Amino acid sequence: MDRRRSAMRWPGPMSLVWTFAILLPASAPLRAWGAPASSDHVLPLVLGPQTASHAEADSGETLLGELNCLACHTASGTVKARVASRPSPILGAEGLRITPQYLRAFLTAPHNEKPGTTMPDLLHGMDASAKSEAVEALVHYLISLFPSAASTPTGADPLKMQQGRRLYHQVGCVACHAPHEVASAFRPGMNGDRSSASPNALANLASWQAASVPLGDLAKKTTVEALAKFLVNPFQFRPSGRMPSLNLNEAEASAIAIYLLREQAPGLYDPTATLHKIKGLRYQYYEGRFGGDTVDFDSMRPRDSGVADRFSLDPRRRNANFGLRFTGLIHIQTEGDYTFYTESDDGSRLWIGSTLVVKNDGQHAMAEAQGKIHLKPGEHPIIVTYFNGGAEFGLKVSYQGPALPKQEIPPSLLSHLGQPMLPIGSEPFALDAAKVARGKELFGSFGCVACHPTKDRTGTSTFQARSLDSLKPDAAEGCLGESVAAGRPQFRLSDTQRRALRTTLAHQSKLAAPRNAQDQIVRTMTALNCFACHSRNGVGGPDAARGEYFATVGEVDLGDEGRIPPHLTGVGAKLRSDWLGEVLMYRGTVRPYMATRMPQFGKANVEHLVAAFERVDEPASEANVSEIPAENLMRLAKSGHKLVGRDGLTCISCHTFAQFKSLGVPAMDMTQMAKRLRKEWFRRYLLDPASLRPGTRMPSFWPDGLAANKEILGGNTEQQIEAIWAFLSRGREADIPAGLIQARMELVADKEAILYRNFIEGAGARAIAVGYPEKANLAFDAENLRLAMIWQGAFLDASRHRSDRGAGFVPPLGHNVVRMPPGPAFSILNDLQAPWPEAVGKKAGYQMRGYRLDSKQRPTFLYSLNDLQIEDYPVAAPGEIDPKLTRMLTFRGGKATDKLWFRAAVGSRIDAKANGEFWVDGKLALKFDLVGAAKPVIRESGGQKELLVPIMFQDREARILEEMIW
User: Fold this and answer.
1) 952 contacts 931 by C-beta, under 8 angstroms
2) Where are the beta strands (DSSP E) in 333-366?
3) Is the CATH number 1.10.760.10 carried by domain 625-733?
4) pLDDT given for residue 44 in this prediction
């Protein structure tokens, strides 16, 4: 019995049953054009939306491109551009490495070896002997194109196989390819158990084979290494984009490859299978909070496993609270006494065989322990365990022996026993030069080169085919004949497929006209099978059965919109063009909770969609938000900040905000919205979410156009939406909404100001933070004698300094953080062209003299610049929307001078307003009450704007009253 076609038991409650039924489910939203239920073979599979409006002419045009007919039948440039033929896979050095045994079987009978393939049979009609000789010559030629490279086979890994199994069924593979397991096996808590699967679910596994893109006999075709390389970057091998990239990293690609090639690992199911020595060490990776002197890894379940070439912590997924166990063999060349060392932070152990040689237990800084053992030449089992209990980490494993100085154990001496995954039917293969030459000749004469580019660009095709415009639609001979003659490509087309192609050929004048934008969209979405995941204008999207494989990452209660990719109806009016391009070509994504990934199809295959969607969906013209005056924009953004936060509409209950999690379900990141969405679509969506996203859980906060919140902006609906947009337009620079950060030890100013002296982020190690009851706050840098920053809302979370070691800098807890200019605040300038000095603190003549408190515990900072005494008295006060700060600066003593300046602000833009305010980067408004006719000066310096305020003395005293609104 062929072991590859029998039922295989998975370790655990799940089994795999291999089936090759060709039934097409009646409800499938994808179709194989013209596949009859009674067919005795699987037709060339071309997927597309099954709609009554998809006329035969359109179907034929799709087939014309997907079967790459124009590779042989020449056509004008206009026709080629319209048909947009599907490029064939690249062969040779740049292509996927394929085994001789698979090539031999595939070339002999492509439709039998890979049911559903679009590859035609070019050798049908030949007698058996001639066909065998031709196949063998082609095999030798194609194998000769691959660079000779010996590689170590991948070892079978049950954990990796399980990971690959889940990835294959959840990241998007089964949108196009047939699932191998019922969807219920991947629900939380099922652990792969299919015993509760419904009969319909099991039947679907069989019926999906004919309605899915075929995989063929991968276990015979290639290796884990080659398939993983293909999965990471499919465009290197198949530029058509029909096989897209799912943005897999190397570990994920390797796991999926191991799963898809699992038939190469009978040792996982047969305990009597022979194990082989494989280079590298097996490792198991663990996570947990490890305490004590050592860790019992046998009682834990690993988070990951794999092969490492040396003892290293590189397999870790994080930098604290993790463990690793390495197992394998070490090759000893000379008999004698060997000393082994582990240097680690924290604990480690080393065994040779069953002997514990090195015991480096406990939680400690980097420390070395050693042990001796007598070893004979040969292979010896070696185990090294390591754990990190927090903080720093490190591991180094060394040895020394007879005539062998102390050194890290080299990878060349390390190996492990395992089941090497080798292509089924592998056998020694030696190139025959004569067959290579003959194969090269046949590659041209059969017309293979017309479709398949190779590295050596083997001439031009000598295969004779008529031009497209000279073809007769009703001709009995040729590719569309009932019986295709020998020497002509045999696609095994159905009557429906032939009829569709004949209809297209009968109306070739249509092919001479360029596609309009709507046709471009439908053609591209059909060719790339976008309809498998997305619907547009009521067409496409996963059906109920296949939709069960679309899942969330973890247990996230977001309904279908959390697991099913969004519909594309009106997407050109929804998404900004730059973001649509980011999604299609540069891996732009905003749904981390969705397990199914947005594929990348290659820039050349989808770039045109950006303009096409915009042209068809006609987005409304929008006013540029930057045209709103800065002061109005800031006020709007402040109101928007309140609306999305705890005291407004509480958008943070569902939506994340940059790196901050929401208070509930993890819906889309608010900081990405203005970057992605068109403003008018956003407005329409907030007014009526369900009209644009049917089934959404997004509530309407303006039912019938009336605001639910009547306090902010007087309940004016349009102003509230404009305010939210203004706030979100700041992206990741927007302030954190109130209520999003849950402080563990929040310092709150109630009736009096509160001072906190400690390490403050942005204010240094000698910072003095002040929180006012009005909810305006500041941090003063007592080292460099300057106001470092101001912010609004919550003050500080002191938990970092009052737990564990109390190390680190505490950031502001509130919002609207404005950082003041670095460097000295005051300086003498001989003229306004002189650069502002860089020296600060004592080097610049400054000295801290303390502070005094008023009756409400508000500080006046006391410091000096040489013999000039400075009093700095900031006070919070209510503002129009948020609180503001007024700051009285008093200067006494010092030498009389009119060249002393206060640098109040630095920014890329500073604007003077008619009301006396100075706006800094549209975020901070400053106003000054000065003595006499003195006026602030805006100057250019170092590529930025500076706001300098003159300090004018009367009777050896000067005062500046500064108002700060932000």
Assistant:
1) yes
2) 336-345, 348-352, 355-360
3) yes
4) 66
Structure confidence at residue 799 (pLDDT): 85
Amino acid at site 735 = D
Strand partners, 862: 871
755 pLDDT more than 80: yes
Sequence-distant (≥ 6) Cβ neighbours of residue 266 within 8 angstroms = 3, 273, 419
CB 446 within 8 A of CB 107: no
Cα 686 to chain centroid, rounded: 28
- Percent of the chain at pLDDT > 90 equals 72
8 pairs with which residues across the strands? 16
pLDDT at 46: 63
Tokens of 893: 């003593």
State the Cα–Cα distance between residues 192 and 182, nearest whole angstrom: 9
> What is the per-residue DSSP string for 622-661?
---GGGS-HHHHHHHHHHHHHHHSTTTT-GGGTB-BTTBP
- In the prediction, which pLDDT does 462 show? 73
- CATH tag for 746-965 (out of 3.40.50, 1.10.10, 2.70.98, 2.60.40): 2.70.98
Give CA–CA dist 135/451, Å, rounded: 18
CATH topology (fold) of 276-418 = Jelly Rolls (2.60.120)
Q: Note whether 625 and 711 are within 8 A (CB).
A: no
Beta bridge partners of 394: 345
Does an H or E element contain 905, and which? strand 900-907
Residue spans of the domains in the chain: they are 3-18+166-268, 100-151+424-451, 276-418, 625-733, 746-965
Q: How far apart are CA 677 and CA 729, in angstroms?
A: 10
Biggest alpha carbon–alpha carbon distance for the chain:
116
Cβ-proximal residues to 556 (8 Å cutoff; 6+ apart), any chain: 562, 593, 665, 666
Which alpha helices (H) appear in 121-246, and where do they start and end? 128-144, 158-170, 199-207, 218-221, 224-232
Q: Contact 72/452 with Cβ under 8 angstroms?
A: no
189: left (phi over 0), alpha (psi -120 to 50) or beta: left
Cis peptide before 346 (omega within 30 of 0): yes
**Rounded CA Rg of the chain:** 36
Q: How far apart are CA 58 and CA 419, in angstroms?
A: 50
| pLDDT tens track for 452-487 | 877 665 556 677 889 999 999 988 888 998 889 898
Q: Hey, what are 21's tokens? A: 């039924």
> 3-state secondary structure string, 697-753?
CCCCCCHHHCCCCCCHHHHCHHHHHHHHHHHHCCHHHCCCCCCCCCCCCEECCCCCC
DSSP letter for 275, please.
P
pTM for the model stands at 0.78
Q: Are 625-733 and 746-965 equal in CATH topology?
A: no
d(CA 184, CA 545): 11
Which one-letter amino acid corresponds to residue 195? S
Residue 182 is encoded by which pair of tokens? 């019922």
Q: Answer yes or no: are the C-beta atoms of 698 and 691 closer than 8 Å.
A: no
Alpha-carbon span 916 to 909, nearest angstrom: 16
CA–CA dist 633, 630 (Å, integer) = 5
319 vs 250: CA distance, rounded Å = 20
Question: Which structure tokens are listed for 764?
Answer: 């240094």
Unique residue bearing structure tokens 């090269």:
440
Cβ contacts of residue 444 below 8 Å, gap of 6+? Answer: 458, 459, 460, 461, 462, 463
What's phi and psi for 746, nearest 5 deg?
A: -75, 135
**Using one digit for the tens of pLDDT, what is the confidence trace for 840-861?**
999 999 999 999 999 999 999 9
Q: Which letter does DSSP use for residue 835 in this model?
A: P
Q: What is the DSSP string of 510-534?
A: GGGSPPPHHHHHHHHHHHTTGGGT-
Query: What pLDDT does 33 receive?
Result: 40
**Separation in Å, CA 944 to CA 406, 584, 671, 716, 906:** 57, 37, 27, 38, 7
